[in-house]
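Input for the complex:
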Amino acid sequence: MTGFARRHIGTDASAQALMLNALGFDSLPAFMEAAVPGHLG
Amino acid sequence: MKDIARSAIPAAASEAETLAELRALADANTVRRSLIGQGYYGTHTPSVIKRNVLENPSWYTAYTPYQPEISQGRLEALLNFQTMVADLTGMGTANASMLDEATAVAEAMLVAKRATSQGSNVFLLDSDTLEQTKAIVRGRAEPLGIEIVETDFSGEIPECFGGFIQYPGASGKISNPRAAIEALHGHQALAIVAADLLAMTLLVPPGEMGADIAVGTSQRFGIPLGFGGPHAGYLAVRSGLERQMPGRLIGVSKDADGNPAYRLTLQTREQHIRRDKATSNICTAQVLLAVMAGMFAVYHGPEGLREIARGVAAKTAGLAAALRAAGHDVVHTDIFDTILIKAPGQAKAIVDAAAAQNVLLHQVDQDHVSISMDETTTGEHTGVLAGELEQKLAQVFELPNYRGEDGDITLGAELARTSGFLEHPVFHSHHSETAMMRYLKSLSDKDYALDRGMIPLGSCTMKLNAATEMEAVSWPEFSGLHPFAPVDDTEGYLVMMSHLEEWLSELTGYDSVSLQPNAGSQGEYAGLLAIRGYHRSRGDHHRDVCLIPSSAHGTNAASAVLAGMKVVVLACNERGDVDIDDVHQKIAEHGDSLAALMVTYPSTHGVYEAGITDITAAVHAAGGQVYIDGANLNALVGFSRYGDIGGDVSHLNLHKTFCIPHGGGGPGVGPVGAKAHLAPFLPGHPLAQMENHPPFDSATGKPGAIIHGGVPVSGAPYGSASILPIPWAYVRMMGPDGLADATAAAVLAANYVALRLRDHYDVLYTGDSGLVAHEAVIDIRPLTQATGVTVDDVAKRLVDYGFHAPTMSFPVAGTLMIEPTESEDLGELERFIAAMIAIREEATQVAEGVWPADDNPLVNAPHTAAAVTATQWEHPYSRELACYPADQLTRGDAEGSRGGAPAVVGKYWPPVRRVDQAFGDRNLVCACPPIEAFA
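Predicted:
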């Protein structure tokens, strides 16, 4: 994340990594793939 | 990440670049001196109010005051507004504001319909009514089968259930409304009067003439024109109609110690309870603007307001006299601020001549021009040396001797106000700027807003409202334009709105967007009207059934009824998902009558329902249209689009997904987007600068090809235009990648909180993956069963820990819905999680008998400073635990996951203890209580 998005979004990459790890995912795309049902998009 | 089309949205710009682009857009607007009037007047926003309210996050980032213990400041400010409106109109009770004057008139009409028992379907409309109000009232009446009859009330009036009088009239003429009110009462009909609040300082108010309902706007009390909004409308009723009022109402109750405390009162009236029995769908108010208007009255006091009004009336009278002396045909004699000039065939030439001098007049028709004076046209030039405006008017109308002299005010026989108003001490105590600044500070200190900490309100999306996004709102090029300014003056706005329409179309998968609706509820209504208009255009007048899941927000059902539809409720399964079998069954049952399905996605339970595309396909196969409620769009942006999963039309909440702050309960913007076949039925407006959408098509560089031809849903053509720089700046600074990153961060945060709380609470709804979307519902009912601790106790105890409560008992009673949003950092998430776990442990101690059920830190929460410092402390827990529980909690875990950061950075002290809700409903007091009540 760069620029303003970094200011708007509270969690940085390291925080997100920690949260993803707790949830059992190794990346944000993998997590969203699981969270948002596959028939969408 | 899913790869969706993103062509319309440019890559992210920096904050500095965005401000520079906003400056360029602002420079493309031309602010000329507006004497257009027609419900929108120049006003001086006192700088102390602009800086300390409008531009102050303590006010603009606050939420709707559903949690009264942490909202006493803005509740008091709103009570000032209610008191001001009730006093000035002479009515019994005023509500906490309406979306605008035009819709307030329509809402009043519906109150009259409900409150009268005689069977008439006729509503009388004053022929001297503002044009936008006429359009709104006619639009609202048609789907409900109400017949509108225009009249000047001079002769016999027909049988009717209610009638509306504009006072003073749109033409400026002041007619005594007394006879019309009595004639209406002769038919057992309700009399509704739109009263200009400034004029009411000089005129006998409608309440003293027996009017049943007064409506109007408080815009000229310090709220900038803003190209049409946002402004706070008002609605006030005589004694006996309080329980019929739409909107929110602030009342006085008492707290657990018996001290007076403010709260939202009569909440059961709201549409989320009444659902399809509701006669209004509005849930939001215009709180930030109502606060400002109320403070305008606090700052000026009754004498100051009278002074401004006299200045306006005298200036108007002086100009009218000069015009008459020069041989112009001035139509009306009894006037307050508006002069109607008859100039056969010359109206356009006069308006053009004035515009050439940078003065904007109102062209009524080919033969009439009107001129409206306001607070900003009074001043020191009077009578001595003509100011710039006076010189220009003298030139346009060839008044060689006019110097802006005051004239003799003529308001009409028997209409001079003799009664007092604003006699409460609050309107007499803060007239110096120092006192005003401190009053505003003392109120905001009582409240919990985003500038204190996280507000994890599910379904409300209390994300960051960035300072750069807010920056341009108060620039004069955006705030100073009249909503009916000539099209050439509004180019910057039209370009900005073109961007927004295209960007929002792109993000939702729709073909056209209307930015006109002033709130999500108005967007819903507009979208359902589009469906209705589409069916009727094909001759399908019989299609009037709207399927709505039982889990839906109550507003959905209320909006459907107002759009002339019949609501059929769909069952939900134990997971909170729409029951697909029931969808098929209800479609089979209603067959040809099916108009629409209205569904929220992700669901109101915070779940991406796997069956959504099956449901939308089934509705389409049966000839129905799909309305997807976009309240939860923030869980979808960059990943999926309503248009791609079967939606035909949706409203969005710019005050949720796109960063317009909640303002303590308004303003909002609820744009409605639709596929091409519904776009012609989106809201139009008789006074719109351009009927094309987008105004400028970025692909062709020409006006867009789509014309919105539906009835208007807001008084102003582009709704609350002056807050559109906020979502514009947000999308511009995030870019397509940043928007998707925000969605992912929000879903991640919700799932992380749900995971961490799962061992301590029941997380109610998850999707097939076991994950939630952007919010998590936790069930407090098992806890209540085991310990007696209620959802209220948990919510109020969170205040002691320094948090705003999550959403209570929506979508399911006895639950809390948590939405952390993408804007909270991990430290704040951990602090919240720790507080929730600690509260769970406190509940266990209650269950184990460590603390009695009726005397423990939960049931006594929140704890005020006065309570914990009282000489006597007889509770079975410590004072420290009462007010610094988080510190107690972290003492044993100093090196915990937060790295030893202090739990309470700045202690928030609630000003009152638990507020007695039932007492306030039984003892309705909706104006400022006497000072003695606080002794």
